[in-house]
Amino acid sequence: MFRDALETIVSGILAFAIGYLLWPPFPGQFYWGAVSDVVGGFVTLLVIIGLCFSFGFIVRNTTPITSVNFAIGSLLAYLVGMYLIAATMEPDSPVHWLVYGLMLAGTIFGHAPSEILDAAIDGFVRMLDLSSQR
């Protein structure tokens, strides 16, 4: 029980840190603008999500943090980050919810690709299995 709580807290701190480092919420600290001017916004977002995926993959291979605890901690970090953005700034649009959400998804998928793919394939096979519905 204590290990799960500790892994969740550490995961939340790691996810919050990578979200802050990759996409600082303050206008003066945003450094992807130059990259976006050269390659476009969509490619820049793909690069950021790829970095998040890589971060999740590195955490998976260097720490004993389980996928469930990592996902819960990352989700909590996302919620705390969105609350802090809403409380300290007045965003013009809700785009930060989307961008940080995509970063969260990339990080979690990087940490648990086999578990996510297994669950998706199992669900797809169960959906196609019509023989048990007699």
Describe the 3D structure.
The protein has 134 residues and is mostly helical. It has one domain. Helix content is 78%, strand content 0%. It has six helices and no strands. Helix 1 crosses helix 4 and helix 4 runs antiparallel to helix 5. The longest helix has 22 residues. The chain is globular, with a radius of gyration of 17 Å. The mean pLDDT is 87.
Chart the SSEs and their pairings.
Layout: H1 2-22, H2 33-39, H3 41-62, H4 67-88, H5 95-111, H6 113-128
Helix pairs in contact: 1-4, 2-3, 3-5, 4-5
Number of domains: 1
By DSSP (H or I, 4+ residues per run), the number of helices equals 6
Largest beta-sheet characterization: none
Whole-number radius of gyration?
17 Å
Summarize this, please?
The chain crosses the membrane at residues 5-26, 38-59, 66-85, 97-117. The chain is mainly α and 134 residues long.
List the defining traits of the structure above.
134 residues, mainly alpha, 6 helices, transmembrane helix, membrane, transmembrane
